[in-house]
Amino acid sequence: MKLLTTPGFWIAILAVLAAATLPWWVSGYILGLLTIAYYFGVFSMAWDLLFGFAGEVNFGPTFLIGLGAYGAGILNNRYELPIPYCLAVGTVLAVVGGLALALPALKVRGPYFGLITLVAVLLLQNMIVVFSGLTGGEIGLTVPDVISIDADTNYWLALGFMAVSGLILTAIARSPAGLILQAAGQDPVVTGALGFNVAKHKLAAFAISAAFSGLAGGLVVFYMGTASVGTLINTSVGVQVIIAAVLGGRRTIVGAALGAVFLIAAGELLRPLGGLSTFVVSAVALLVILFVPSGLLGLASLRSAR
Amino acid sequence: MTVAVRPTPALAAAPVAAEPCLTVRGLTKRYGGLVAVKDIDLDLRPGEILGLIGPNGSGKSTVMKLIMGLERPSAGSIRLDGTEIGGMPAHRVARSGIGLVFQHARPLQRQTVLENISLALLPDSLIRLAADPHVARRAKEIAERVGLGAVVDRRPGTLPFADLRRLELAKAIARDPRVVLVDEPFAGLTGGEVSAFSELIQGFRDEGKAVLLVDHNVKSVAAIVDRVFAMYLGERIAEGSAESVMADPTVRRVYLGGSIETAARPEAAFKPDSLLTVENVDVLYGKAQALRSAAIHVHEGEFVSVVGLNGAGKTTLFNAISGLVPHTGTIRFDGQDLSRMKPAAIARAGIVQVPETRELFGDLSVRENLDLGGQHFPKAESAKQRDWLYELFPILKAREGQTARTLSGGEQQMLTIARALMMRPRLLILDEPTLGLAPVILELLSKALEKLRQTTPITVLLGEQNVTFALPHADRVYVLEQARIVWEGPPQRFASEMGSAYL
């Protein structure tokens, strides 16, 4: 496979291996932050598959994440099913949501589709508040089970999950099917006239993106032991996911994970600034989007391509 | 001006007696009330090149899109080797053996030329994670064939315009279709490139493929087509060999107008100093040269028409004058150099352009649209101007309270022109005002322009591909062809000197 011969692949493997040694020399607090950052990385990578490859601007990544998280969480909270079953059901729910979101995407384009995805988030948010008996409403949902109470285990699980997700998503993006998906995103008319079923490829992209978002959402719930609108569904969470992907580099998949880690690390490093920290992180993100639209990784790969 | 559509005797011009592989019967496409394609019957045989021609808005592109499945027909059938393909989505039409070479290529920018060609060779599969090894080899062969052999590893962004067209051709070849549709095969190409492309297209024919070339006029495709099918306002007006179609009286009337009465005032009748001078102006759109050292001048009070086919560069020329596209060379208006001025400043200096896209405020009423145009003047003056325009276009007075969106195409065009005139321009630029209008409306518009010319000292620069509309009012005519001004003269000499190019 071509992937094995690219230097980026081996650099990524080394980076993951190096990251795996962190529990031996950093504090549990930092491990906790990175654990969340890795799950966020999966959110962003899944989003990049839709934006960077399928050409669909999904302003509501948290709709898919929330379906997976709450689907899994409610099942565990109500029926106390084992975690793997809950995760599976949550993932399936997210995929169904992703396909439902894909249908308007095939009909309307650009800003209109973006609006629909935003509305989907608001709807989900409202549903959670309205059916508070089931969902815990604004207070949040607690789950009786957690994956592990050991910070190291949680960290390694998140790292492994991100690495495997990144590998699968990158492989898809670079495969012939990924090439067709990119063509469909860029010019659906020409792609259709070349004999490719654009709808099929886009639906598949939505399903894959939703599956990874939903599964990651479910894992976050069983890591934290709670699910709440503020941490998983709020549009500001969605904006973070998007900024991470754009910051790291559109159409790179791996860049999205880097962006997520960078965002969370930067937020932490700037914590002494207090309220200003969010502002500074946002300003940096804005500058990157303005001046380096291809993102940090995009910039690096452009350099090496020359 | 109305065009009588008479049945033309079908001329068996194609030397091949083969059974048609593509048969179109009764093909009709309606958009709301507009009938874009009316009851078209068309046959295409293997090893034949058919030219489908017609002026802007004739429905030829719609026919092409209907065949490819990019639009759904309202009625009629399209059969490929006996199988009905009408109404199928594009990807199924493509798989059943029809390919389309698009005019505007948007290739994958981050992939190489070879990868772009390989894309077209892939099966429509979701689970294929690695391409077959033969794909790369086949892509390379195709690249060699279309003349991209030396640039397979480059990215499309670094290629010249003609190579991007070759890439589109390569993608069509890769699908190995039985029927190839080519949209404006030679648009934007230079002479040498045109002959290279002709050879490639003839290569399709020699392989036994059926080829449909869609273009504006017979002349551009005459050298390689076996047969021509001419359309106007959605209907067939002539069919046969290139010569017979060019000689057809209906075709001549559509393209050249019947006997055009011109009323040109000699150039010497105007003040010797030009109001507008365009010298040596070049415009580049990425790789494509849209305007090559263009030079025109317009005197105060003169009515000048710029005639040219679609894509010749008319809109580009006007946009350069209005400061909407970057250009090199000089453009002077009333002694001022416009090159450094912003579009808004140019408009305030007195140049008002009426774009072909109209750009009305659809939700505002006719009167509100007009008042917006006159907002720079005191109320009383604005009202006076509006009354004068109501006199010029009485229909607008009747429609005063209606929103612009609900007007017919012709009424919208009149409103656009009226709104521009509210600004009391010294130079009015009209870009293809006849686009998509029915002949009856053309006549109304034509009368209004004539009245405008006779009753006011206004200077007008009109861009048109419809010669019948452009000539009667003009004092002087320029002809734009493939980004160059190729002819200048009084309208009465146009038919004899330039007419054949407009068939």
Keywords:
heterodimer; A: 306 residues; mainly alpha; 15 helices; 2 strands; B: alpha/beta; Rossmann fold; 3 domains; six-stranded mixed beta sheet; disordered N terminus; ABC_transporter-like_ATP-bd (chain B); nucleotide-binding (chain B); transport (chain B); ATP-binding (chain B)
Please name the fourth-level CATH homologous superfamily of the largest domain in chain B: P-loop containing nucleotide triphosphate hydrolases
Q: Low-confidence segments of chain A, ≥5 residues, pLDDT <50?
A: none
Instruction: Work out the largest interface and the residue count of each chain.
Output: A-B, 25 and 32 residues
Q: What is the quaternary state of this protein?
A: heterodimer
- Output the number of helix runs of chain A: 15
Average pLDDT reading of chain A: 89
Largest sheet: number of strands, sense, barrel closure of chain A = 2 strands, antiparallel
> What would CATH call the architecture of the largest domain in chain B?
3-Layer(aba) Sandwich
From the N-terminal CA to the C-terminal CA of chain B, the straight-line distance is 18 Å
Q: What is the strand arrangement across the widest sheet of chain A?
A: 1-2
Main pleated sheet of chain B = 6 strands, mixed
Distance from first to last alpha carbon of chain A: 23 Å
What is Rg of chain B?
A: 25 Å
Number of helices of chain B: 18
Structural class of chain A: mainly alpha
Subcellular location (chain A): Cell membrane
Pfam families (chain A): BPD_transp_2
Main location (chain A): membrane
Transmembrane segments (chain A): 29-50, 57-75, 81-103, 115-135, 155-173, 203-223, 229-247, 254-273, 279-302
Give an account of the 3D structure:
- The complex is a heterodimer of chains A (306) and B (503).
- Chain A is mostly helical and 306 residues long.
- Chain A has a domain of 202 residues.
- In chain A, strands 1-2 form a two-stranded antiparallel ribbon.
- The radius of gyration of chain A is 19 Å and the shape is globular.
- Chain B is an alpha/beta fold.
- Chain B folds into 3 domains: 159 residues, 3-Layer(aba) Sandwich (Rossmann fold), CATH 3.40.50; 71 residues, no CATH class; 236 residues, 3-Layer(aba) Sandwich (Rossmann fold), CATH 3.40.50.300.
- Chain B has 18 helices and 20 strands.
- In chain B, the strands form 4 sheets. Chain B has a 6-stranded mixed sheet, sandwiched between helices. A 6-stranded mixed sheet of chain B has the order 16-17-18-13-19-20, sandwiched between helices. A 4-stranded antiparallel sheet of chain B has the order 2-1-4-5, covered by helices on one side.
- In chain B, helix 3 packs across helix 4 and helix 4 packs across helix 5.
- The N terminus of chain B is likely disordered.
- The chains are: A mainly alpha (306), B alpha/beta (503).
